[in-house]
Amino acid sequence: MKEILRTNDPVLLSAVVALLDGAGIDHLVLDQNMSVLEGSIGILPRRLLVPDTAVRVAQGLLRDAGLGHELRPDVG
Question: Is the pTM here over 0.70, yes or no?
Answer without folding.
Answer: yes
